[in-house]
């Protein structure tokens, strides 16, 4: 009797082992690469990681480590690990504004020239620039993003060309909150300012640019940008909670149908179609309004690039995996599933991508002229200085604040004192 | 001391030792390390440029308008929330103490907000006061954007704090109320004291130490307020608190020296508040019960 029991027990054990072995198919000896990236809800990144693992034929497998959706919080979590030389970080989904900081601190590895050429080829120049610091490539451009002007076709027949024109027309249309924008004291306010400043022909840092570390903020364009901000915030057409609005508050307000104009990223299009079809059917898009008549706007570029952690155990494999992840097929996946615009120029003519982004022509044109946020290792400080000085926008005094802003950015570049 | 006494004493120390060692490891070490870091110019991004600068970080913080502004804001929030919490907490405690029917229901419903995570409570109130998604404006027939003006933002922050932590205050005060002997109240009544006199002349004086402890705990908590402000305004509209200033320097700007100096200064403020209360209320935290 006991032998019967034993046989069943062994049989069971064997079965269990069989199942276990079946589950761990890739085998424990295949190196696992960790990809730290924001938790993309559609699953496009997971699919891309899986695909690349399969294509590698057992050289590596990629595991996603999800980070928060908010870029500031992603950075906070990453930098502490990177500064502590965490060897688990192989591939990093880097926001475009981290390039200089991570490169200067030695937290990411520069791309070897041969592979760098491969990932640069056929990409939008502005996306490549966002991953470049001191003439070297520190990350492979993956997805990009920028803002467009969204408006109500049923109320506005021709989209406004300039900010002044838009504010004037919104005031005629009436109703508070006719224009939705981002005015909270956070990164979005810096983005807004940088876009306005570049559209007015100015720049935050001097021509030395990368690592040059001099404040530019030319008098005339800076004042012009501040005038637009102040005019918008004090206009009856602005939303009463502009000083507390981020991208998502703007989107929600536009989806109620009361607003006629909105400055926002491309994710508002699928969102409106899903949540507010009655608004989406009247929704149209155009290029961001210009600041100076006849001079096309220059809008801030966003998106993520893939960098390789400096303390990775498998840097070669990580470079290979990142090269695979940023390939056109995976960008298409990220675009069609996740709504993230691609960095490869040719994809903007791809029928699938065009289906997702009916505005792909405007998007590509905007990205071609896009402006970078200041490429300095002290970007976090500079951005805090800008958003803290210019908030709330309704209290901006264009004359006096040019000087204040310059002083604040200068202090930030020297990382002096509290901000 | 007898031999037995000293042996017991040694045993007592031995039994305390694990707790003391754990406390030293998890609190004393980081505190001393922060003190050490605050004497350096030290940025996590440029570890090679670390430089001893003495008290320069402290001078920089103390001469900054940002710090004093944040200190003022923190005090506004602390005084505003703690004083109202004390009054409301007393009302709640008396209701919980005196209620006869549905005692369990009354207590549970009064304590409910304390069980909600601060971030969630702060988010809910942020949405409640939002002109687009909120119900507060509809209820009051207003159309202001509360979180975009300084004093209305303070109002929202303080009322969130009150809503969230009054139950804590009430709980401590309830414990104090049960310590007031019924006989004493009866005796006072027999002597002709009315309800008001009984409360102010008998109950309150007897509860003095408990009130002191409750105020101390809440003031220390309120002074270090972070999450509610972070969620509702991120310190905008002039609602920065000292903890947010420290967070910006330490976590966002990775400026370990400056950030640690801010942390040490906050610690000193907390220490000062604690001493003030202990002196003012005569709270003896080490007092043994006399029988």
Would you kindly provide a brief summary of this structure?
Chain A has 419 residues and is an alpha/beta fold. Chain A folds into two domains: 30-145 and 302-368, Periplasmic binding protein-like II (D-Maltodextrin-Binding Protein, domain 2), CATH 3.40.190.10; 147-300 and 378-413, D-Maltodextrin-Binding Protein, domain 2 (3-Layer(aba) Sandwich), CATH 3.40.190. Helix content of chain A is 46%, strand content 13%.
**Broad shape of chain A:** globular
Helix-and-strand structural type of chain B = mainly alpha
Shape of chain B: flat
Number of strands of chain A: 12
Please explain how this structure is put together.
The complex is a heterodimer of chains A (419) and B (291). Chain A is an alpha/beta fold and 419 residues long. Chain A has 2 domains: 30-145 and 302-368, D-Maltodextrin-Binding Protein, domain 2; 147-300 and 378-413, Periplasmic binding protein-like II (D-Maltodextrin-Binding Protein, domain 2). Chain A has 18 helices and 12 strands. Chain A has helices at residues 2-23, 44-55, 71-83, 99-104, 113-120, 125-130, 163-173, 187-199, 219-234, 247-255, 268-275, 277-280, 315-325, 328-338, 351-356, 360-368, 379-390, 398-413; strands spanning 32-38, 61-67, 91-95, 108-109, 132-133, 136-137, 140-145, 147-152, 179-180, 261-265, 283-286, 302-309. In chain A, strands 1, 2, 3, 4, 7 and 12 form a 6-stranded mixed sheet that branches. Chain A has a 4-stranded mixed sheet with strand order 9-10-8-11. The model of chain A is unreliable at 10-24 (pLDDT under 50). Chain B is mainly alpha-helical and 291 residues long. Chain B has a single domain (55-281), classed as Orthogonal Bundle (MetI-like fold). Helix content of chain B is 73%, strand content 1%. Chain B is built from 12 helices and 2 strands; from the N terminus they run H-E-E-H-H-H-H-H-H-H-H-H-H-H. A two-stranded antiparallel sheet of chain B has the order 1-2. In chain B, helix 3 runs antiparallel to helix 9. The longest helix of chain B is centred in the N-terminal third of the chain and has 35 residues, at 3-37. Chain B is flat and about 75 Å long. Chains A and B meet through helix 3, helix 10 and helix 17 of A and helix 11 of B.
